[in-house]
Design goal:
two-stranded antiparallel ribbon; 306 residues; alpha/beta; Rossmann fold; 19% strand
Length: 306
């Protein structure tokens, strides 16, 4: 197991997850259409229509609502951090087709994929379901949450096209995302590895819900060697779908503590739920010299730790 790197999580992966929400400018130190490319959705892709048409009336309705909550995301992250603020949000017309950034780091031979989530967390949670579907990108590799997959299929062609066009000479890929963006990370990571087996993925997600059943999770864990899910102790989203639906988490969990709040949104969003929680974890787990792993936070060797 590769130990969790708290400084890397706080200083590299967390800013990338935050930057994914902003369609007006790329992540810091990257240039639009040179080293940073938008990951865009196509809600009218035939794969979407096929999945919806093959589902029953209930599944079709809930799947469409999940997709619509993502498409309503404002062009820029508003930074709301309370339940009342988020519930007051109006829809963002027209649909926001920006789902994140695909970046190139040629100096380190590293590709970067950062997915956004949605400000409309209540809209999504209020319409949540447990309906599974076969994992479409690699047939026979398990079942996943149908709603999450529906969203992923809107961006898959664009993502894979960017990967095929820009991956020559690269041997690593960083994948990160927050909330529903974390679910997209899980669905994308094994898809990317299946398309390009020369890339070694490193996945750090934030507030990721459960994505697949045990068959998909087994497939994932045998293909993605470095996967850490950072979970705020007080955040409810990583506990969805609930255990009764038999969905599981992939990779290794690392728990942080942002401080208790009764406000669901406060605990879940990056500025108040994850930025302070990650900073606190690093403060409580300072790097120190180890015999076999160099200088690192010793607690990170546990894989699942507070």
């Amino acid at each position: 197991m590769i130990p969790f790197d708290g400084i890397f999580a706080e200083k590299t992966m967390l800013p990338l997850a935050q930057a994914a929400y902003d369609s007006t400018k790329p992540p810091s130190n990257y240039t639009t259409n040179q080293t940073a490319f938008e990951i865009c959705a196509n809600p009218n892709h035939p794969a979407i229509k096929n999945q919806l048409n093959s589902a029953g009336a209930v599944q079709m309705s809930t799947g469409q609502r999940a997709l619509q909550s993502m498409l309503k995301q404002p062009k820029q992250h508003l930074g709301f951090s309370t339940d009342a603020q988020v519930r007051s949000l109006a829809a963002s017309p027209p649909a926001n087709l920006h789902f994140g950034w695909f970046c190139l780091d040629p100096a380190n031979k590293t590709l970067i994929v950062a997915f956004r989530g949605t400000e409309y967390i209540h809209d999504w949670m209020d319409n949540f379901d447990f309906i599974p579907a076969p994992y479409a990108p690699v047939p026979g590799r398990g079942t996943v949450h149908a709603g999450f997959q529906l969203v992923y299929l809107t961006i898959r062609d664009n993502l894979i096209a960017l990967l095929n066009k820009n991956s020559s000479g690269y041997n690593k890929i960083l994948i990160t995302g927050h909330s529903l963006g974390g679910a997209l990370c899980a669905l994308a990571a094994v898809d990317i590895v299946s398309v390009n087996q020369t890339l070694a993925p490193t996945v750090y997600t934030w507030a990721e819900p459960r994505v697949g059943h045990d068959d998909f999770v087994t497939f994932y864990n045998t293909h993605v060697n470095i996967c850490y899910r950072i979970v705020n102790l007080w955040d409810v989203v990583p506990h969805l779908p609930p255990d009764i639906a038999q969905y599981e988490h992939e990779g290794n969990e690392l728990t942080i503590d942002s401080g208790f709040s009764l406000d669901v949104v406060h605990n879940h969003v990056l500025p108040t739920g994850y930025v302070p929680g990650m900073a606190r974890w690093n403060k409580d787990h300072p790097p120190q010299d180890t015999q076999h792993f160099g200088r690192m936070a010793v607690a990170a060797l546990a894989g699942r730790t507070r």
